[in-house]
Design a protein that fits this description.
This protein is mainly α. The protein has 2 domains: 84 residues, no CATH class; 128 residues. Helices cover 63% and strands 0% of the residues. The chain contains 8 helices and no strands. Helix 4 packs antiparallel against helix 8, helix 6 crosses helix 7 and helix 7 crosses helix 8. It is an enzyme of class 3 (hydrolase).
Length: 216
């Protein structure tokens, strides 16, 4: 069963990479068919198998020999590992990781992500909460969406606030503090290597969340 879950997870990871690429390039989810980003040649079935195709192709396009980003292989492998943790009790956390994983991939490419992710990822954490917490969360979520666009240069993105809010609802104050500390340290190291005025923070938050989830 773990092997089957890993295979399904790797396929989902491959799908998330493809969806994020379509979002970044503003192309349809359904058309055109999967193709090499460099030579635009359509890919055949054996070139679309998660993990195995990358290894068989040795990380290069079969047609033009352009390098395939190693991040695709890494994401497929991690997604496979995450799905092996799926049980009836972990459905919501695994779904949460998948939704924010997609958002992080989009954010890494464009520093934006589809707004519907927040409206799905936050509410799925609410059924286990009290009515008071639900009302406060809804008010905060609506407030972030209404107010954040009026700030010319906000120090943190509205999506970052939404993932922090939903993480706190799932795992509590102590786990949230550990998660944020890890993500912030990774971001500081990255900003020291590549000096930038701004950079996407969501990938660091998601990487930290994955690390804590798999470690536990």
């Amino acid at each position: 069963m773990l092997i089957i879950l890993f295979i399904y997870g790797a396929c989902m990871g491959s799908g998330l990479v493809a969806l994020a690429d379509r979002y970044a390039t503003h192309t349809s989810v359904f058309y055109p068919a999967s193709h090499c980003d460099t030579c635009q040649t359509p890919l055949v079935y054996w070139q679309l198998v998660p993990i195995l195709s990358y290894l068989l192709l040795r990380g290069r396009c079969h047609y033009c020999q352009a390098a395939i980003p190693a991040t695709s292989l890494l994401i497929e492998f991690i997604a496979g590992l995450v799905l092996t943790t799926l049980t009836p009790l972990t459905v919501i956390p695994v779904l949460w990781l998948g939704l924010w994983g997609y958002a992080a991939l989009c954010d890494a490419r464009t520093q934006t992500f589809p707004g519907w992710v927040s409206w799905v990822a936050v509410p799925i954490t609410l059924p286990m909460q009290s009515l008071t917490v639900v009302l406060i969360t809804i008010a905060l979520l609506v407030g972030i969406h209404l107010l954040w666009s009026h700030f010319p240069n906000p120090p943190i993105g509205d999506g970052d606030l939404e993932i922090i809010l939903s993480y706190h609802l799932l795992w509590g104050v102590t786990a949230t503090a550990q998660w944020l500390l890890t993500a912030s340290l990774m971001a500081l190291i990255y900003s020291g290597i590549k000096i930038r005025s701004s950079f996407p923070f969501l990938p660091f938050l998601l990487t930290s969340a994955l690390a804590w989830w798999l470690f536990q």
